[in-house]
Amino acid sequence: MAENKYEELWAELKKYLTLQIDYAKLTTVEKLVVLLSAIAMVAVMLILGACVLFYLSFAVVFMLSDAIGSTWGAYLIVSGIFLVLMLVVYALRQKLILDPVSRFLTRLFLHHK
Q1: What is the pLDDT of residues 1-51, one digit of tens each?
Q2: Where does residue 75 rank: exposed (0-12), middle (13-18), buried (19+ CB within 10 A)?
Q3: What is the pTM of this model?
Q4: Distances (CA, A) of 73 to 29, 52, 55, 56, 63
Q5: Which positions ≥6 away from 96 have C-beta within 8 Å?
Q6: Are 57 and 75 contacting, i.e. CB atoms less than 8 angstroms apart?
Q7: Do residues 64 and 74 touch, judged by C-beta distance below 8 A?
Q8: pLDDT tens-place string over residues 77-98
Q9: DSSP letters of the chain?
Q10: How far is 86 from 99, CA to CA, in rounded Å?
Q11: Residue ranges per domain, the chain?
Q12: CA distances, 69 to each of 27, 49, 55, 60 (Å)
């Protein structure tokens, strides 16, 4: 009789562990889908943003060339603005890039719904 109880207990334990493994797999897949969709969205937004910035920079160059009378000077001014923006982003990379990414990943993988 006791042996039968142990077999039932063992069968229930195996079923429980199988369910826990399946739950872990599903949770992992769900989190990977969220992560990959976020990466895809950021990539698309970066590409579209680069296109917009490209055309806006040409518009600013043409506007400045009319104002200062020199096309090459306008290109230098716009290039200088981009260089300053790059330096600002580099200086603030922890606050602008690393912290938000780490918060997102921490929320995604460590906090339960």
Answers
A1: 668 888 899 999 999 999 999 999 999 999 999 999 999 999 999 999 999
A2: middle
A3: 0.73
A4: 53, 22, 18, 17, 12
A5: 89
A6: no
A7: yes
A8: 999 999 999 999 999 999 999 9
A9: -HHHHHHHHHHHHHHHHHHHHHHHHHHHHHHHHHHHHHHHHHHHHHHHHHHHHHHHHHHHHHHHHHHHS-HHHHHHHHHHHHHHHHHHHHHTHIIIIIHHHHHHHHHHHHS--
A10: 18
A11: 2-110
A12: 61, 29, 20, 13
Q: Which two tokens stand for residue 55?
A: 């055309």
Amino acid 109 reads: F
pLDDT at 18: 96
Structure-token pair, residue 47: 């590409």
Q: Which two tokens stand for residue 69?
A: 């009378």
Q: Which residue has the tokens 């200086």?
A: 91
Count of residues for the chain? 113
